TrEMBL record:
This is Radical S-adenosyl methionine domain-containing protein 1, mitochondrial. May be a heme chaperone, appears to bind heme. Homologous bacterial proteins do not have oxygen-independent coproporphyrinogen-III oxidase activity. Binds 1 [4Fe-4S] cluster. The cluster is coordinated with 3 cysteines and an exchangeable S-adenosyl-L-methionine. It comes from Helianthus annuus. Belongs to the anaerobic coproporphyrinogen-III oxidase family. HemW subfamily. Keywords: Oxidoreductase.
Length: 482
């Protein structure tokens, strides 16, 4: 499923990370500079070092209530993918039940879960579980059941937990889906990516348009009440008409949730050897921005709420698991190449199977302790929170940020965004989420105390602010760590 096509925003989160890896969520990045965008405004930020205050009860010290499970199996590697996967080749979903590669991996994964120390007492049951990949729907339900049973035994799982699974067209039938639903899987993320045969073939996808429509029909006939569809924009030779068609057919399929990702060219992929970003047959930056605006407009008109930079949902169908990431809450992660977030530190697993197997053995032997408390750099934590909050339509909770990191850095953050507030890329809201006008802000910015009291939220506008997110987030980093 789509992971590696989306470059990690600003390359990585800034919290202390043990062993680099791709984080277990999809992070689109937009490099397009909008016409007449304000110049760099470092002059609006104080040049003296800012004092970052330490929160009394930081959320990163809470016990995780979410778990990401990486199931790396695919039929073949897509041309844009550099994520850690295991290509099964011609193995069909029907014969995967006895594939020793899947059996051995699941056994190792279960060993990792069982060997993980929690260091939390009491430990709350898991509220969300997300099976990502790879193509998790290639894994037989009986093996998924073993993983869920292990999680339930080790941590507990809430009766109403959101349990999501990424699934590809052509890798499941109604029987398999019903079996998975019987295990507790109650949310499906369908990796469609495009509704044009030529684009799917050009991407190296293992499914075609026929399988896409069959998968949508299976989901409907099985009564899945919560499902999402993934689309990719800015594909080679993708035209505006193709993108309009994909968005129209998506709306007609009536998923509860839609994820829209902008293709990123990774160097160690087939696309990386064939194409240069911004050059034909890839769309220009301007065209990519048009695709993004078109998605925002089309899905908005169909009553999808654009609640996160790449995510749209019907009311009450936001992905609870992914929202854990956006609000910087801790989470477990298990499996090849996955990264967990515990006690303010991101822990990464190896991306190669042999190394991952050795890692699990070391974990069992007590040579790895994922729950140990490390010193957390509060400046890096502040940067994480700003970056993740700006991905969402809710934005940065300003008073909470003041409470956690101090008024000085928060006030400077407001001042550095003044030109972007005037250009419409950044919005300042009061506690009731009423947008503060330019005149009101011009008055507030003259009085730090008033500014601190009146601002409730800071968010990026949709779509222009989201499209300029790289530059805007970089400005925040410059304020927090000048």
């Amino acid at each position: 499923m789509l992971k590696s096509t989306i470059a990690p925003m600003l390359l990585t989160l800034h919290s202390k990370t043990k062993t680099n890896t791709i984080l277990p969520f999809k992070t689109p990045i937009f490099c397009t500079l909008l016409p007449q965008s304000p110049p760099t405004v470092r002059r609006n930020a104080s040049t003296k070092p800012l004092t970052i205050e330490t929160p009394e009860t930081p959320s990163y010290n809470l016990p995780p209530a979410s778990a990401y499970i990486h199931l790396p199996f695919c039929r073949k590697r897509c041309h844009y993918c550099d994520f850690p996967i295991v290509a099964l080749g011609s193995t069909s979903p029907e014969t995967a039940d006895d594939d020793p590669r899947i059996l051995n991996y699941i056994n190792t994964l279960i060993r990792e879960i069982e060997a993980t120390k929690t260091h939390f007492d009491p430990h709350p049951p898991l509220q969300t579980v997300f099976f990502g990949g790879g193509t998790p729907s290639l894994v037989p339900p009986r093996l998924v059941a073993k993983v869920l049973d292990t999680l339930r035994s080790r941590f507990g799982i809430c009766l109403d937990a959101e349990i999501s699974m990424e699934m590809d067209p052509g890798t499941f039938d109604d029987r398999k889906l019903k079996d998975l639903m019987g295990l507790g899987v109650n949310r499906v993320s369908l990796g469609v990516q495009a509704f044009q045969e030529e684009l799917l073939k050009a991407c190296g996808r293992a499914h075609g348009v026929k399988e896409v429509h069959e998968a949508i029909e299976i989901i409907g006939s099985c009564g899945v009440g919560n499902w999402s569809m993934d689309l990719i924009s800015s594909l080679p030779n993708q035209t505006q008409e193709m993108w309009e068609e994909s968005l129209r057919l998506t709306v007609e399929a009536q998923p509860n949730h839609v994820s829209v990702y902008d293709l990123q060219i990774e160097k160690d992929t087939k696309f990386g050897s064939l194409y240069t970003p911004g050059e034909f047959p890839l769309p220009s930056d301007t065209q990519s921005a048009k695709f993004y605006r078109m998605a925002s407009r089309t899905l908005g008109e169909a009553n999808y709420n654009h609640y996160e930079v790449s995510s749209y949902s019907k009311s009450s169908f936001e992905c609870k698991h992914n929202y854990t990431y956006w609000i910087n809450k801790p989470f477990y992660a298990f499996g090849l190449g996955s990264a967990s977030y515990i006690n303010g530190t991101r822990y990464s697993r190896p991306k190669k199977l042999k190394d991952y197997t050795n890692y699990v053995k070391n974990l069992e032997d007590g040579l790895v302790d994922l729950g140990e408390e490390d010193d957390v750099d509060e400046g890096e934590m502040a940067m994480d929170i700003v970056m993740l909050s700006f991905r969402t339509s809710k934005g940065l909770e300003f008073k909470s940020f003041v409470e956690d990191f101090g008024s000085e850095v928060a006030v400077e953050l407001c001042k550095v965004y003044e030109p972007y507030m005037k250009s419409g890329h950044v919005l300042f809201l009061d506690d009731q989420r009423r947008e503060i006008t330019e005149d009101e802000f011009s008055s507030l910015v003259l009085d730090d105390e008033k500014l601190e009291n009146e601002i409730g939220f800071i968010r990026l506008s949709d779509p222009d602010g989201f499209l300029l997110s790289n530059e805007l987030i970089s400005l925040a980093f410059g304020v927090i760590d000048p």
